[in-house]
Amino acid sequence: GQRRRWLNGSFAASVYAVVNFFQLYRSGHGIFRMFFFHIQAIYNIASLIFSWFSLANIWLTFSILIDLLPDQGIVIFGTATVTHWVNLAFKWLYLSFLGLQFILALGNRPKGERAAYSITLWYVLPKSWLKMSLSLLIHML
Fold first, then answer.
1. Which domain holds residue 79?
2. How far apart are CA 137 and CA 74, in angstroms?
3. Count of C-beta atoms within a 10 Å radius of residue 69
4. Residue 139 above 80 pLDDT?
5. Alpha carbon of 59 to those of 32, 66, 68, 76, 93: distances in Å?
6. Where is average pLDDT lowest: 22-26, 33-37, 124-128, 129-133?
7. Shared domain check, 61 and 29
8. Is residue 1's pLDDT more than 60?
9. Among candidates 97, 86, 84, which has minimal Cα distance to 125?
10. Does position 10 have pLDDT exceeding 60, yes or no?
11. What is the H or E stretch that residue 7 is in?
């Protein structure tokens, strides 16, 4: 619970800092300090944008990686047809696990669902991503 509250509070604090940045102009800070506040604001904006779109970036990377395999003539699962259907199943599995993460995040006890988090994070998809990435790397060499 505490970690989720901290993450939500951290995101809200970052949004608040970016939205209310221009209130600094009413302060008595010097030009040198204001310059570094601007640098920090640019960093906060970039960080918010990247964190907001991180799930989409992972999905795009995963989809591109899966779609590159048949185009490169790499058949991991026996035949090209089987590889296509297994890759499609991996895409649906990823989306299902993503939905599962959202549903589990709505609960009050994240420690009670430790197994589901661990399976999603460490066992199913990263192993397939590693296998596909290594296949592409070996094929490129």
1. 54-140
2. 11
3. 21
4. no
5. 41, 11, 14, 20, 12
6. 124-128
7. no
8. no
9. 97
10. yes
11. helix 2-19
The verdict on 64 and 108 lying in the same domain is yes
Convert the pLDDT of each residue in 116-129 to its tens digit: 777 776 676 777 77
Statement to judge: residues 84 and 129 lie in one domain: yes
* Total domains present in the chain: 2
User: Given this model, what pLDDT does residue 6 score?
Assistant: 58
Q: Say yes or no: 11 and 42 in one domain.
A: yes
Is residue 100 within 8 A of residue 120, CB to CB? The reply is: yes
Kindly state whether residues 68 and 44 are assigned to the same domain: no
φ, ψ of residue 72 in degrees (nearest 5): -90, 0
Do 14 and 73 fall into the same domain? no
Q: Do 44 and 61 share a domain, yes or no? A: no
Please name the residue that has the structure tokens 């800070």. 29
Looking up tokens 């296509």, which residue turns up? 84
Q: How confident is the model at residue 75 (pLDDT cuts 50, 70, 90)?
A: confident
| Residue keyed to tokens 């030009």 | 31
Q: Is 29 helix (H, G, I), strand (E, B) or coil?
A: coil
